[in-house]
């Protein structure tokens, strides 16, 4: 468990995984920027179970409040085999918990955990160019804009551009030491 100020990050429990997949498929949980494509429950349940056995390809945490209710998720995964990096993904499951700084803190906790426990040199966050809330999270966590992947994602009948943010280990150390 990774403690935060009013919540903690923890691995999902086996018995929670079907409920977690249900939450991830709710339209309000997906928001306006995550793709509308739904997760196949059996496939996603297997992926989450596999993630608990090895963090080589993906590591998944739930964001749980002090009563241990699941508020959202944060995870990291290997993008391309030749990069010494991980991409961070995240989402909150309801509007009531959005805009309170929880995700910024959760991403900061995950960022610090990854740089403290791995040899990674680079973390990335990608988001739809219209997703200003996600962009604020990346900036507040010290990530720098590297560019735009034009027409990278197809969703809701059209292609969308994606902003690409990254943070290098030396930049993280400078943030931590300041």
TrEMBL record:
Query: Can you tell which superkingdom this protein's organism belongs to?
Result: Bacteria
Describe the location of the N-acetyltransferase domain by residue ranges.
7-169
Q: What SUPFAM superfamilies does this protein's entry cite?
A: Acyl-CoA N-acyltransferases (Nat) (SSF55729)
Q: Which PANTHER family match?
A: RIBOSOMAL-PROTEIN-SERINE ACETYLTRANSFERASE
Protein name, entry field: N-acetyltransferase domain-containing protein
């Amino acid at each position: 468990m990774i403690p935060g100020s009013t919540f903690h990050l923890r691995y999902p429990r086996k018995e929670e995984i079907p409920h977690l997949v249900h939450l991830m498929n709710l339209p309000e949980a997906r928001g306006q920027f995550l793709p509308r494509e739904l997760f196949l429950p059996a496939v996603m349940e297997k992926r989450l179970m596999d993630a608990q056995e090895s963090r080589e390809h993906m590591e998944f945490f739930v964001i749980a409040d002090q009563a241990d209710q699941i508020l959202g998720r944060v995870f990291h995964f290997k993008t391309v085999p030749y990069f010494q990096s991980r991409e961070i993904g995240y989402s909150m499951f309801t509007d009531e918990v959005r805009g309170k700084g929880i995700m910024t803190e959760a991403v900061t906790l995950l960022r610090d955990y990854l740089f403290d426990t791995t040899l990674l040199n680079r973390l990335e966050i990608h988001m739809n160019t219209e997703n200003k809330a996600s962009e604020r999270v990346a900036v507040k966590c010290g990530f720098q804009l590297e560019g735009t992947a034009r027409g990278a994602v197809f969703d809701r009948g059209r292609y969308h551009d994606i902003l690409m943010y990254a943070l290098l280990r030396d930049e993280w150390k400078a943030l931590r030491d300041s």
